[in-house]
């Protein structure tokens, strides 16, 4: 499976280069068939110096994209090219994936600064939207870029149409649409990229398990936030680059945290009381997932206490994934983290996940 293309700093990089008056080109994967290193929507920015930000697959395909980008910067003309990955053996300098890629190299991206500004701003505000890259193929390739917020997609959008755009947002997968020319017209292609903010993974507890979950959760595409009441367990160097940390009373920090429908909560504190405080702060708040570590006995006792005290109904407590994680026989910290993150992925992609047996 090829990685999805979530919000990233690539759009801000385009804006920054444009604002500095730098010459650059954007390389964008339009099609990817067979076995390829990245999928449709993968994007990189190539400066006139040859420096590259982002990736379109690395290796030979990226080297070719860089070469063509430098040519396009010199001519000022966009170009679309195909690249076959068909090396015959491991020792062959050509890639052996066996797939085919089609890429756009666009040195006119600075003209569409407003679209990239809007895309970057939407990412910072955690708003969903689409980036439309329109390519008119004629004797001279012409590219236009537009950003649309999900709540601002017109009822009757131009090709590929409103329903097609919304379908891409629902699938969260980029898609290329082609309109074949009729007499007197040009062939039009439109790449629709869904820009989806990374779901937030709130890890309550910065100990060994929390740290391992943060690493694996980051790799799985979650935005990481860690809460702990001990300063030594909220040091940024313990967690992936870009992770946010909050130090304070566990229950209060969780209660203050802005929950949303794409918030995932993993409770892995150092003790029963802290777990209870965190869980209390999570109940009856919007979240895609709330899971709590603990033995079956601990979970059963906590459930009884929460229901008797009125802090939760039986149905509310039973929505919590506790004991947390998938039942894969995990014993080590990395294995436990893997079981937790696998459960998060299942909920994110399918809306539900198998639960650990409680009896």
Number of domains: 2
Helix content: 25-40%
Structural class: alpha/beta
Strand order of the largest sheet: 3-2-1-5-4
Shape: elongated
Low-pLDDT sequence parts: 1-7, 88-95
- Mind describing the biggest β-sheet? 5 strands, antiparallel
Provide a descriptive summary of the structure in words.
With 359 residues, the chain is of the alpha/beta class. The protein has 2 domains: 10-195, no CATH class; 200-350, Rossmann fold (3-Layer(aba) Sandwich), CATH 3.40.50.720. It is 32% helix and 24% strand. It contains 10 helices and 14 strands. Strand 10 (200-204), helix 5 (208-219) and strand 11 (223-228) form a beta-alpha-beta unit. The chain is elongated and about 75 Å long. Residues 1-7 and 88-95 have low confidence and may be disordered.
Give me the secondary-structure topology.
Elements: H1 10-19, E1 24-33, E2 43-47, E3 52-54, H2 59-75, E4 79-84, E5 100-106, H3 113-124, E6 129-137, E7 142-149, H4 162-171, E8 175-179, E9 187-195, E10 200-204, H5 208-219, E11 223-228, E12 244-247, H6 250-256, E13 263-267, H7 272-282, E14 289-292, H8 296-309, H9 314-318, H10 333-350
Parallel strand pairs: 10-11, 10-13, 11-12, 13-14
Antiparallel strand pairs: 1-2, 1-5, 2-3, 4-5, 6-7, 6-9, 8-9
Helix pairs in contact: 1-3, 5-10, 6-7
């Amino acid at each position: 499976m090829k990685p999805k293309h979530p919000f990233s700093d690539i759009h801000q990089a385009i804006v920054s280069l444009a604002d500095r008056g730098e010459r650059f080109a954007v390389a964008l994967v339009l099609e990817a068939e067979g076995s390829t290193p990245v999928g449709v929507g993968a994007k990189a920015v190539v400066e006139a110096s040859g420096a590259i930000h982002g990736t379109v697959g690395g290796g030979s395909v990226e080297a070719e994209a860089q070469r063509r980008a430098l040519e396009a910067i010199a001519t000022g003309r966009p170009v679309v090219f195909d690249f076959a990955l068909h090396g015959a053996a491991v020792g062959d300098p050509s890639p052996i994936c066996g797939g085919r890629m089609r890429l756009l190299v666009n040195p006119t991206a600075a003209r569409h600064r407003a679209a990239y500004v809007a895309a970057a701003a939407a990412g910072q505000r955690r708003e969903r939207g689409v980036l439309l890259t329109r390519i008119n193929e004629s004797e001279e390739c012409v590219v236009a870029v537009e950003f649309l917020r999900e709540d601002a997609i017109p009822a009757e959008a131009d090709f590929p149409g409103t329903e097609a755009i919304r379908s891409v947002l629902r699938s969260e997968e980029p898609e290329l649409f082609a309109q074949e020319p009729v007499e007197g017209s040009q062939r039009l292609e439109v790449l629709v990229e869904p820009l989806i903010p990374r779901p937030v993974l709130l890890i309550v507890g910065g100990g060994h398990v929390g740290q391992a979950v943060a690493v694996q959760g980051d790799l799985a595409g979650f935005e990481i936030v860690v809460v702990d009441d001990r300063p030594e367990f909220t040091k940024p160097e313990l967690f992936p680059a870009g992770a946010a940390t909050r130090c304070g009373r566990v229950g209060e920090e969780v209660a203050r945290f802005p929950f949303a429908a794409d918030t995932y909560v993993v409770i892995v504190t150092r003790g029963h009381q802290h777990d209870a405080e965190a869980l209390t702060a999570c109940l009856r708040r919007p979240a895609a997932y709330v899971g709590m570590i603990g033995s079956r006995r601990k979970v059963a006792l906590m459930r009884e206490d929460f229901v008797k005290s009125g802090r939760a109904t039986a149905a509310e407590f039973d929505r919590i994934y506790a004991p947390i994680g998938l039942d894969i026989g995990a014993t080590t910290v990395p294995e436990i983290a893997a079981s937790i993150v696998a459960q998060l992925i299942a909920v994110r992609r399918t809306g539900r996940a198998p639960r650990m047996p409680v009896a």
